[in-house]
Amino acid sequence: METALKVLRPPPELTISDWADQNRRLSSEASAEPGQWRTSRAEYQRGIMEAISDASTETVVIMSSAQVGKTEVLNNACGYHIDQDPAPIMVVMPTERDAETWSKDRFSPMARDTPCLQGKIADPRSRDGNNKILHKRFPGGHLTIVGANAPSGLASRPIRLLLCDEVDRYPFSAGAEGDPVNLARKRTVTFWNRKIVLVSTPTNKGTSRIEAAFEESDQRRFWVPCPDCGAEQLLTWTQVRWSKGPEGDHRPETARYHCADCDAAWRDETRWAAVSKGHWVAEQPFAGVAGFHLNEIYSPWVRLEAMVRAFLSARSGGDETMKTFVNTSLGETWVETGEAPDWQRLYDRREAWKPGTVPAGGLFLTAGADVQKDRIEVDVWAWGRGLESWLVDHVVIEGGPDRHDAWSELTALLDKSWPHERGAHLRIARLAIDTGYEAPAVYSWSRAQGFAQVAPVKGVEGFNRSSPVAGPTFVDATEGGKRLRRGARLWTVAVSTFKAETYRFLRLARPTEEERAEGAAFPPGTIHLPTWVESEWLKQVVAEQLVTVRTKRGFAKLEWQKLRERNEALDCRVYARAAAWIAGADRWPDEKWRDLEDQLGAAPYGDTDPAGQIHRPGQAPQGKRRSDWLGRREGWF
């Protein structure tokens, strides 16, 4: 009876920040500053936790950089509700692995070291099932921890407190169930006092989940008074300045923040003291959604010298590394450069190599197939280290998917091999085929060929650099007129990601002939086009452009629009790139690349393999497994 009354008792007049200051203890393995929690250490966290505590606020959105303590805010919200206001809680992480990591490394130490939580969650060594890694029970509620890639976890039970971390890293769809954030939101509809917290560093402008949620909020930003003149201001990167040496070399150790009003230079300690006196200001009317934006300049754990070093490194690394800085340090969305390269410039940069031959740097082949009403177009690409690539073949199979011979010709292409410059023969490691036209026919053919070599793909708009290809998911297929449930495997491809990457790679500066003669290499990602490729193909590969459009609700959205009707070359490139991702090229360690080089004889003559064994071009080192992508030829073994 006493336990029941405690559950029914209304929550105390205690905010999450008050609870954390009184009870929370930081663990040594989860924090650089173990001991009693102090909200004043990062004063901006107080307003965020008060918003989560506020009954009039249904949704809280935190769009921020890394290193501002946003995950600890979620931890405090969990601890508060377990101790003071029991409820069904769900924490959603990008993947199930992330969910397990958070449970083991962040939540469990907090539950162990915070005295008021001890005894409320069962001992993990007990056998009653009340404390599992991803599901924990406590009096009056439970905590479920799931990955956004697991639809069964998202749809499992009603939830009152929903905490979603790093939502911009979520897949486009949880299996075949749709957007994981919307799936999780549906778990809260039965609770009148539900609370939804969305947290993330942003990604690309127009496609970022957290940016879209922030734009629907009251958009609060943290204003800080200048210690010298008292002028309140937002802390921005443009006010961070540093000196240069006599020879123009940058000196990050001299970095200071300069007041936007009086130009007073703040040292790190001055900046941290100023932040402790700041306050949140909403830029839009409040309508139940509180939004917060922060960058690393506000963080008491980050020195400006480190930020400047990160910036200089990112700037020298090009768009890819600069995007990381903008997202994770400034907490801002990245605007993709989607201007189409000039096809005539690409025509002038074509390179001569023997038609149908794989150049020396190519280590494996993938293909992209675009199914049209009256033909199937296929481009075969060779890939090397750093995703350097070469167009090896362009095939047009006449006749649409209703023509049996067209599928036979496509099947024959899977068995074909292309001679490598070093003497070997290569087959297609993976072919990605579009399912946008006549999907049942594509599924049936792919099933017959085997999904180890063929990957049916479905393109979706949007950017997702961390995981541009999702899947596979099982879909129904038809074989001999009979419907086979879950008979095919479908991969989902964020085509915007690979289109932008292709344009970025096409624009890369190349070393001159003199520089190459002195040993300069092509930059990673360089796309090599052969002299046999025609102007029509080049026009197709640059047939789209990324533009910013406005939705009906007035929000900015990035959208690819055609500059000309035909764009098959670009689509085939995207599918071939997706096939390389599916094959694992983006995640291979150096040993894998070295193994392929060894088997093809692509390493310098007489070079040694990782085991120190001397080998010759065309000779596979002893003890190495020969790649299935290498075609048989006389004298190979």
Automatic annotation (TrEMBL):
Alphabetized InterPro entries for the sequence: GpA_ATPase, GpA_endonuclease, P-loop_NTPase, Phage_lambda_GpA-like, TFA_Chaperone
Coiled coil ranges: none
Amino acid composition bias (Basic and acidic residues), ranges on this chain: 625-637
Residue ranges of domain Terminase large subunit GpA endonuclease in the record: 290-586
Region described as Disordered: spans on this chain: 601-637
Alphabetical list of Gene3D superfamilies matching this protein: P-loop containing nucleotide triphosphate hydrolases
Domain Phage terminase large subunit GpA ATPase positions: 31-280
Pfam family of the protein (one): GpA_nuclease
GO terms for MF: ATP binding; ATP hydrolysis activity; endonuclease activity
Protein name (record): Phage terminase large subunit (GpA)
